[in-house]
Amino acid sequence: MPQPLPPLDDLVACHQCDTLHVAQDLPENARAYCQRCGAVMMTAQSASIMRILSLAMTAFVMLIAAISFPFLSLDANGLHNTTSVIDAVLAFNDGYAFPLAVAVAFFIIIIPLVRLGALIYALGPLARDQRPHAGAKHAFGLAERLRPWSMAEIFIVGVTVALIKVAGLAAVTVGPAFWAFAGVVIVTVLKDQMICRYSIWEALDHQPD
Fold first, then answer.
1. Which domain holds residue 169?
2. Which residues pair with 21 in a beta bridge?
3. Is residue 108 domain-shared with residue 184, that is, in the same domain?
């Protein structure tokens, strides 16, 4: 005789492969992994939201620094040039390359900042054991939808490859913005590995609509 299906509210889908599992209460500091792909699905760490919030705020500040400070300097044949992330975006603002400038600005500056800001807005009260802000569920949903489009790490990889090719033609000096961008990538990876989306959605479900 077939077993009855559990209530839909007790099911949680893996964010990697969409396999359905029955949600269970976990012991403190325990983790639940997907039986199919092995991805972390749930955690029971009481301080995890505070750590995620701290990493998100750190990445936000570092991204602001990456935009504000010089990115790299080039010296070749007595000529010196310093550029920033904003200069890299503005380099494509003429003629047919203007859509490329808009895309670069959105993918490496605007979308990462919006995603981090939405995450900070949604998790701030939860880290202090307070009721979520109005619209916190929409803010966290926006942060999740923007996750595939936040491409700061793609930008830093592309710049690194370009620097390797240019190093033989000019003296290249990386500025503080380069290291800030590299820090954003590392902090973002740590944050995304630590985040427990199921627990956050469960906490946000207590907010009034």
1. 47-204
2. 12
3. yes
Q: Give CA–CA dist 13/80, Å, rounded.
A: 54
* pTM, full prediction: 0.76
Q: pLDDT tens, 9-36?
A: 567 777 678 777 777 766 666 677 777 8
Is 136 within a domain? yes
Q: Say whether both 58 and 157 belong to one domain.
A: yes
Amino acid 186 reads I
Nearest to 180 by CA among 81, 30, 58, 56: 58
CB 74 within 8 A of CB 148: no
Helix, coil or strand: residue 83: strand
13 shares its domain with 85: no
- Rg (the chain; Cα; Å): 21
Cβ neighbours of 53 (radius 10 Å) = 19
| Domain count within the chain | 2
> Same domain for 67 and 26?
no
Structure-token pair, residue 117: 């800001």
- DSSP secondary structure, 139-157, as one string: HHHHHHHHGGG--HHHHHH
Three-state DSSP at 42 gives: strand
41 in Cβ contact with 26 (< 8 Å): no
What does the pLDDT look like over 93-147, one tens digit per residue?
A: 777 778 888 888 888 889 999 999 999 999 988 888 788 888 888 999 999 888 8
Same domain, residue pair 30 and 81 = no
